[in-house]
TrEMBL record:
Organism: Chytriomyces confervae
SUPFAM superfamilies the UniProt entry points to: SET domain
SET domain sequence ranges: 39-443
Any GO MF annotation of the entry: methyltransferase activity
Protein name from the UniProt record: SET domain-containing protein
Gene3D superfamilies cross-referenced by the UniProt entry: SET domain (2.170.270.10)
Pfam (any one): SET
PANTHER family named among the record's database cross-references: HISTONE-LYSINE N-METHYLTRANSFERASE ATXR2 (PTHR47436), SET DOMAIN-CONTAINING PROTEIN (PTHR47436:SF1)
Annotated spans, Disordered: 323-358, 397-419, 443-470
Residue stretches of biased makeup (Acidic residues): 445-463
Biased composition annotated in UniProt, kind: Polar residues: 403-417
């Protein structure tokens, strides 16, 4: 079977026979062992209508952290990287507040400013360095928050796409990245995945074999997928022509594939995966399963302690990165897992508000996060429900709006330390019994506050007016869900 056909296989193949089922289960069990959490979950196959899903093995009460998961692959948005220096594996902030301020202001601080900040450091004590990790660099300049993250990234494929480790491809890598930044940043995530495949192929005892190819692709095969041009729906409000959109996506992929083939010109075993169809499936996987990730800035609690002149300059600069909605339309940031945020997406397209309008300090602060996109094995397997029992948060503090505190068990990762990286946190929003499927809402409506205590939402059992609203809402939901590959929602609310 060729690489495209192998990657294209769906759940039916993953659960076709006892051997396939064992392999699939083993894959997910290993991934579950690697995530942190209060309880235990499993992945189950429900049949062709809603595919796989995640099921609770232990009971959870509303507010419980079900698990937290670091992305299998993650990228920091390039625009965001101009404002926040974060680990290229997990988005933990690196360096020091001084480095961070210099990055934000795009200039070195004066000796006087440094002296003032030293006084601040002495005054606030450990708060000054909290949330920053010592920077560890790869030879190519890519920065990480620890040797562990650097080495994990290297093993996960960075070595195959690192300009220092592959000097003959350095120019092609730079060209590829430039094209991605100018067209679609998600191609940068794809490059990481191609690096992952290359590293797995090279590490195999027989790199050119079909067996090696299938082994290399396997961890991607488990995700829900379709071709990119089938997944991206035309924007009806802008009367986008479906054929034109398909053509545009194909052209974009053809160009990116050509650049990719130059990077891997010296790796013959990569040939089967470097083609537009394979790439299109990969982009379709991202589109269906991507999760935006973020780390709140450790600069936020410091702002009130540092000199006003510096704070003001930071806010001014940050305001240039305030989200510009409508930019990067097909960047597959559909934000369908964007819950627990502040009611808007974090599309920091950079330089978007160069006018002289008053800066909303809250929006400016919001732009100070480290932000990116990632692919998560378990999170990506959670199905949608219109009445979900769980919700994804980007950081442990998001549930109650407070900042993570040392020693608060709800703000800590499974290892016991405060969560300072971009791992996503899944929390129960109502009681979940063992054996019950864990679901989230893919739609921006999220979960009503009153749902948190497990009480029923009043909308369905209200008067006539509310019924009308409910009908409209149902139609809206059905339409919105199409964007997420759901034509006939199988959740209990829709099936009742
Ligand atoms: C993020 S994946 C979830 C895992 C997926 N079920 C699988 O088998 O890999 C999203 C896809 O799952 C399916 N799905 C999720 N929620 C669904 C629902 N409520 N009804 C029907 N299909 C659903 C759709 O095919 C959707 O495109």
């Amino acid at each position: 079977m060729d690489a495209v056909a192998f990657l294209a296989q769906d759940n039916a193949a993953l659960y076709a026979d006892a051997a396939s089922r064992t392999k699939t289960q083993g894959h997910f069990e290993q991934a579950i062992d690697g995530i942190g959490g209060r309880g235990r979950v499993r992945v189950e196959y429900f049949g062709p209508l809603r595919g796989k899903g995640v099921v609770a093995e232990t009971a959870f009460v509303a507010g419980d952290r079900v698990f937290d998961e670091l992305a299998l692959f993650a990228i920091q948005s390039p625009d965001n990287a101009r404002l926040s220096r974060a680990c290229q594996k997990c988005l933990h902030f690196v360096g020091s507040p001084i480095d961070q301020i210099e990055l934000m202001l795009t200039r070195k601080l004066s000796a006087k400013e440094r002296a003032t900040l030293s006084k601040t450091a002495a005054k606030v004590g450990s708060l000054f360095t909290e949330g920053f990790a010592k920077e560890v660099n790869c030879d190519c300049g890519e920065h990480y928050c620890s040797i562990e993250c650097r080495d994990k990234d290297a093993a996960n494929g960075h070595t195959s796409i690192c300009p220092s480790a592959n000097p003959s491809s350095a120019l092609s890598i730079a060209e590829f990245k430039e094209h991605a930044i100018n067209t679609n940043e998600t191609f940068l995530l794809a490059l990481k995945v191609f690096g992952f495949i290359a590293s797995r192929l090279k590490a195999h005892k027989n790199p050119g074999s079909v067996e090696a190819l299938e082994h290399a692709i396997w961890p991607l095969r488990v995700f829900a997928k379709d071709y990119w041009w089938n997944v991206c729906l035309p924007n009806e409000a802008e009367e986008e022509d479906p054929e034109e959109l398909q053509m545009a996506l194909r052209t974009l992929l053809t160009d990116s594939t050509a650049l990719l083939s130059k990077i891997f010109a010296h790796v013959p075993e990569m040939k089967p995966v470097i083609n537009v169809d394979f790439y299109s499936l990969l982009m379709g996987i991202f589109e269906r399963n991507n999760l935006s990730i973020l780390t709140p800035s450790p600069m936020l609690p410091l702002l009130e302690h540092i000199p006003d002149s510096i704070t003001e300059a930071i806010m001014k600069r940050a305001s240039e990165f305030i989200p510009n909605h409508g930019h990067n339309q097909h960047s597959n940031e559909h934000d369908h897992h964007h819950h627990g945020e502040h009611g808007h997406s974090h599309d920091h397209s950079g330089g978007s508000s160069s006018n002289n309008e008053e800066v909303d300090p809250f929006e400016a602060l919001d732009a100070m996060i480290a932000e990116g996109t990632g692919l998560h094995t378990i999170q990506g397997t959670i199905n949608h429900s219109c009445k979900p029992n769980a919700m994804v948060f980007k950081d442990a503090s998001a549930l109650d709006g407070s900042s993570p505190k040392n020693g608060d068990p709800d703000s800590t990762s499974s290892s016991g330390s405060v969560i300072r990286d971009g791992r996503t946190v899944l929390r129960a929003v109502r009681p979940i019994a063992p054996g019950e499927e864990i679901t989230i809402s893919y739609l921006d409506e999220g979960v009503e506050e009153e749902d948190m205590d497990g009480s029923e939402s009043g909308a369905e059992d209200g008067g006539d007016n509310e019924k009308e609203v409910d009908l409209d809402e149902k139609a809206w939901r059905a339409l919105s869900l199409k964007e997420y590959g759901i034509d006939d929602c199988q959740c209990p609310k829709c099936k009742q």
